[in-house]
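Troubleshooting: if your tokenizer reports a length mismatch, compare against these two reference records.
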Amino acid sequence: MSLADFFTPIITRDFCSGDDFYNSQFGKIIQAYETSFPDLEHAERKPHIALVGVEEERASVNNRGVKKSPDAVRKHFYNLYQGDYDMRIADLGNIQAGATVQDTYIALRTVVEELVKQDILPVIMGGGQDLTYAQYTGYEGLEQRVEIAIIDARFDLDQDQVESPPLNSNTYLNHIILHQPDYLFNLSNLAYQTYLVSKESINMYDKLFFSTMRIGMMAGKLDQAEPLIRAADMVSFDIGAIRASEAPGNANANPNGLYGDEACQLARYAGMSDKCSSIGFYEYNPTFDPMGHTGSLVAQMIWCFVDGFYSRKNDTPVIPKSAYVIYRTTLENDDYELVFVKSKKSDRWWMQVPYFGSRSVNERYYWVPCRYEDYQQAVSGDMPDLWWRTHQKLQ
């Protein structure tokens, strides 16, 4: 079965705000599936990024209407102008809702798996955030550990039925955490609001050594979230994490949350990450967006992701060592040496965490993205919490 079999074509002229697109607008540059499916194999035409719309809303809790979001976002995205880079983006069209929600999950899973295998980065325009589960299962056949960054005001967990809740936008994390085979290495929940999260959920994250960051910790210090996003293989962005005044197009919108420019910056962090191989923007509902402000914001977030993608430094710690500055320090009353590296290209930091006990056959160390503050903490003699949590997962 070809990937084209999963998609329905789009009509790009429906997204044009004028008579025609200008030469530097996305609508003129994107290889869109209108009459023929984009070539995903030819080396000279193969896209770097593929837009994937998913017209599925049946498992989106209290937010019916999200299936209309892909084309609503395109109306804004196609009229944006490309940056100063040679861009190759394909729009594969929309995955229509299957006979059952499970059929849609299987279709999206297959699409994500095939695109990632071909080194094409899927940008998913949902749909409900339950599609994050399908996005995650797309990595199952790739035989790799997966780290997930979720930007959401809530933890989408069911604490009452931990093992067998129905799969929807409020419970998909249960299914990811309990999925077998287990290839989940880390889960980061960013921009959550404490009064929307149960203490049991927070305790569960702590026990599993997952990462969290409250919205208050990010206020005015958005760069605090960058290492967690940089560590992720896949990113899931719930539009409900953005405050209602900035993004009203969500039936579950909150008065508090991220500002629009902060959401764009987080999307750019994801794009700049050498490790990120898929991203999904979920829970945008055009029904609650009569002026199109939220659709415009989502389009700008995708633009920022694309801009970040074409600004990648490819500086994840590898050889040659000359591309990095290496720092070594020991803790108080401890003979163990902590190793940090800083990229000369981007000034970004990583921390070396060794495998102990059941050591990896192919790797001796795990490089975890960190901040300069983690290095300062180690220099002062304290063990960075990030090092300890990562070490626990490497046992």
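Reference record two:
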Amino acid sequence: MNGDVKPMQKYNISGLAIPQLTVLTGALMVFLGLVFFVHTDYLTALFPTLFGGLLLFAGIVSVRRPDLNALSMHIAVVASLVSTALGLTSALFGTWTTTTSLVEQLLMSAITGAHLYVCIAAYRFGKARFPDDSQTCGIDVEAVAERTKSPGPVSVVAISLE
């Protein structure tokens, strides 16, 4: 790597990049669904497994095919959003049948809600800082600092109506 080029910082949580965290979240959701299914024998206890499978798929695709990162992470965000919304609405509006299913819905919402929050934070971290910048997966901190120190020439155009 050239000495002048600095690698961009990536958004990490405990050393995990977002695709890796998505795989971990998916595995947790699959585990949650299987544990509650074994415990209750209710087929609906497998809902977290469905969302976990989507998250696992999206995370693995993103890790193995970085060129599909944007698509796979959008799939992961939608899966987390829907899972969080379904879990919270069923918990709040009382569509659960047992206290055990309420606990499962709340756990599902907490896990995917945390994943959704981290994904949004990662998006904001990599968001373009200036109008002519492109969206990135991380920030070149030195370039941002340099641009804020010397923003460049400013042009003013005056229009007279006389």
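Descriptive notes for reference record two:
- Helices lie at 18-40, 47-64, 69-92, 99-126, 141-149.
- Residues 75 and 154 are 41 Å apart (CA to CA).
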